[in-house]
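Priority: medium. Attachment 1 of 2:
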């Protein structure tokens, strides 16, 4: 411990640690916990306490130094911190941002199928099943690593997603059957499903790194080989096959159906393909 810290700085350290534990108790994603505590730490490095004046000053600082998306993330963090402290200070208003009318950097169905074939050919069944689970269930990577063998046996699992909202994730019958066969052949121990070669849980960071390696190994666009790309693939396939946007919103764990509506729109790449196929005049 640094004993050169002032009493005010020590107080801020304790408050931030308490905030971190509070976020974890509410099952916030690891990246969210890191981002929110970093924002609060930055605030306390500039101001002694959050009140109407210091919060507006901090917002002005953010506007001058960061992109709108980052500004809103840090405002959300401060508003969440005030909820944690049960402060009566009015929440800081967010910036209004125009939502994109399409989703970009989504792996195509053809590239998804190609990647699966490559992984099976090379005997990498861990990542074969890992990407199938993301593309067939729509789970976030932070949720993926929580899946257990008993969930595969039941065919579903309950997750707490953003906003401490509970949702049920269903494992499609074909994926369930194939995974159970894999578990049996590998004599996989009960517990977490995705383990590395040392028998330790696979981490989201390791998954991201491995996907980057696959882009080079198999000649795929690195922009579409990220965990969320497979969640997008699930959403786009589901809306095309089923069309029930309300159900999709529940499956994805979105707090608002408006967030899900983006999957009704085609990406720029898809738009270009359609135009090239249709327009011949």
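Attachment 2 of 2:
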């Amino acid at each position: 411990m640094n004993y050169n810290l002032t009493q005010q700085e020590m107080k801020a350290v304790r408050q931030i640690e308490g905030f971190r534990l509070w976020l974890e108790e509410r099952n916030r994603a690891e990246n969210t916990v890191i981002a929110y505590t970093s924002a609060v730490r930055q605030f306390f490095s500039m101001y002694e306490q959050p009140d109407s004046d210091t919060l507006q000053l901090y917002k002005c600082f953010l506007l001058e130094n960061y992109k709108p998306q980052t500004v809103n993330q840090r405002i959300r963090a401060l508003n969440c911190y005030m909820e944690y402290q049960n402060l009566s200070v009015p929440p800081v208003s967010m910036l209004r941002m125009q939502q994109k009318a399409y989703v970009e950097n989504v792996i195509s169905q053809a590239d998804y199928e190609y990647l699966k074939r490559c992984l099976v050919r090379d005997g990498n069944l861990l990542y074969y099943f890992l990407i199938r689970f993301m593309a067939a269930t729509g789970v976030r990577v932070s949720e993926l690593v929580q899946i257990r063998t008993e969930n595969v046996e039941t065919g579903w699992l309950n997750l707490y997603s953003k906003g401490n909202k509970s949702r049920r994730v269903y494992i499609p019958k074909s994926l369930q059957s194939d995974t159970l066969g894999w578990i049996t052949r590998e004599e996989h121990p009960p517990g977490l499903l995705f383990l590395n070669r040392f028998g330790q849980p696979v981490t989201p960071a390791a998954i991201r790194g491995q996907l980057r390696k696959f882009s080079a190994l198999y000649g795929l666009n690195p922009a579409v080989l990220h965990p969320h790309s497979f969640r997008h693939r699930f959403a786009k396939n589901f809306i095309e096959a089923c069309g029930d946007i309300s159900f999709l919103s529940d499956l994805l764990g979105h707090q608002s159906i408006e967030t899900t509506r983006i999957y009704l729109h085609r990406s720029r790449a898809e738009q270009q393909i359609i135009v090239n196929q249709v327009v011949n005049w």
